[in-house]
Amino acid sequence: MKRVIIYISDSTGITAETVGHSLLTQFPAIEFEPVTLRFVDNETKAHEAAALIDFAAEKSGQRPIVFSTLVEPEIRRIVMGSNGLFMDFMNQFLQPLADEFDQPVRPSVGHTHGQEQQYDARMMAVNFALDSDDGLRTQQYDKADIILTGVSRSGKTPTCVYLALHYGIFAANYPLVEEDLEKLHLPEHLKKHRQKLFGLTISAERLHRIRSERRPDSDYASLRQCQYEVRQVEALFRQSQIGYLDVSTISVEEIATHIMARAQLEQSGHEFTMPKL
Questions:
Q1: pLDDT of 66-120, one tens digit each?
Q2: Do both 97 and 134 map to the same domain?
Q3: Is pLDDT above 90 for 146?
Q4: 20 to 30 Å CA-CA from 76: which of 24, 172, 197, 216?
Q5: What CATH number corresponds to the domain at position 33?
Q6: What's the mean pLDDT in 135-158?
Q7: Are 85 and 65 in contact (CB under 8 A)?
Q8: Residue 168, C-beta contacts closer than 8 angstroms, at least 6 positions apart
Q9: How many structural domains does the chain have?
Q10: Are 69 and 17 in contact (CB under 8 A)?
């Protein structure tokens, strides 16, 4: 079973894609063909979007599922006249909010409260994550909210960038090398920040597949080496009383959310607190 999914927005479409994807994951038996229509912000583009939806319905023989965050009423009316199942996220929630606030809705495309401050804070966090990637600039760890550690290719870098971009978390990462694993000890520059450490582990089989894509037929990517490193790093985490998470089967988004909860990271404006694990 295959269905066309159309995400439509008068801005970037990120909200429509995120919420729509979360809903669609509840239907694993269906194959989805996604299309995103961004910046549909005038009536001409609205008519073009409606024509595309009608074309998709005719071609597939089934009406597309349309996830919309369109704000302007006239643009929304034009698109809703097409042959799709229209899931209107904005209208669904705006009127109940207007009733609760006893205030009229004033359509405003792409505006959010505190957007500039949040953007600046997140960009600072992204710069920190990139500047502190892969064990660089350990002298900056005093500024870190969290320091992710684990073996090479266990997902540390993308998780740090995601934490920075979506939550404004100052996240550094440090790869544990063979010497650390052999001796089962933390490097000195990690020991003094142990309360900020959080470990990522991964199944040896998954690690073997990831490393084989990068360096096929190498000792680094061999299943034997991966099994050894995973076994040792988990022993080191337990010995050092570092909280850790198995990331073998979960997405970066889920990894970041688990870390936020388990490490009790809290967002508060530009400030983030990191209690002891």
A1: 999 999 989 999 999 999 999 998 888 888 888 899 988 776 665 554 556 677 8
A2: no
A3: yes
A4: 24
A5: 3.40.50
A6: 95
A7: yes
A8: 118, 121, 122, 124, 125, 267, 270, 272
A9: 2
A10: no
